[in-house]
Amino acid sequence: MRTVVFDLDGTLADTSGDLIAAANACFVARGHRGVLDAGQDALIAFHGGRAMLKAGYERLGLERAEVEARIEADYQPLLEHYGANIDRHTQLYPGAVDAVKTLRGQGFATAICTNKPEGLARELVARLDIAHLFDALIGADTLPVRKPAPDPYLAAVSQAGGAVERSLLVGDTNTDRETARAVGVPCILVTFGPEGRAIERLSPEALLDHFDTLPALVARMLGA
Fold it and tell me: Are 116 and 83 in contact (CB under 8 A)?
């Protein structure tokens, strides 16, 4: 079966506001100000909790060793704060739901492969009411390794009942590009994320400006 595998954060949904809020809560809890901005630092947010903590504590002028120590100490509190406030600002990108529904109506399997912890990913897709649109979900801790290792992608396709050689990945960062390369499948990168069309520098097989055009693009890339 032809299969389309989606990243979650920055691809299907703009989660940056809630992610940044969780990181800022950690800084504030230690007596600092909230140093990250949901608009300007969205790209950092889409690289995960540790990346946000690292950026914040570096901006606060901490030494490298202390930054590393605080990342380890604050990562779990960040996840807990995020989990309790996971959908306050998060929104699906325009056209995402309709595009996935169209693909499924055309006989494609659909799956999510994300570097968000699986429990949080499942909670988010449930709250966004899109869980039923995906045949599989693989998170950062589902397997011993995460993207860009090929294993999570392979597991997502397998659980969706698809064939790797008839699949592709839709994502938004270099992690997704490298995952596709590791597996040997085409990659579509979205241009409505923080980098805009500058994401073209990663040389994906295709760019996606709006979800409205995804079904036709996927049909061209994967064929009948």
Answer: no
What pTM value is reported for the model?
Answer: 0.93
User: Which amino acid, one-letter code, is at 123?
Assistant: E
For residue 14, the 8-state DSSP code is E
Under 8 Å CB-to-CB from 137, ≥6 apart: which residues?
A: 111, 112, 113, 114, 118, 121, 122, 125, 131, 156
What is the block-wise mean pLDDT of the chain (224 residues), using blocks of 10 residues? 96 96 96 91 90 96 94 96 95 98 97 96 97 98 98 98 98 96 98 92 97 97 86
What are residue 168's phi and psi, to 5 degrees?
A: -150, 165
Give the 3-state secondary structure of residue 114: coil
pLDDT at res. 194: 84
Q: Count CA within 13 A, CB hemisphere, residue 50.
A: 7
CA–CA distance, 195 with 172 (Å, rounded to integer): 9
Q: What sections of the chain are H helices per DSSP?
A: 16-29, 42-45, 49-59, 64-84, 96-105, 118-127, 150-159, 174-183, 214-222
Known catalytic residues are: 7
Question: Within 13 Å, how many C-alpha atoms sit on residue 153's CB side?
Answer: 31
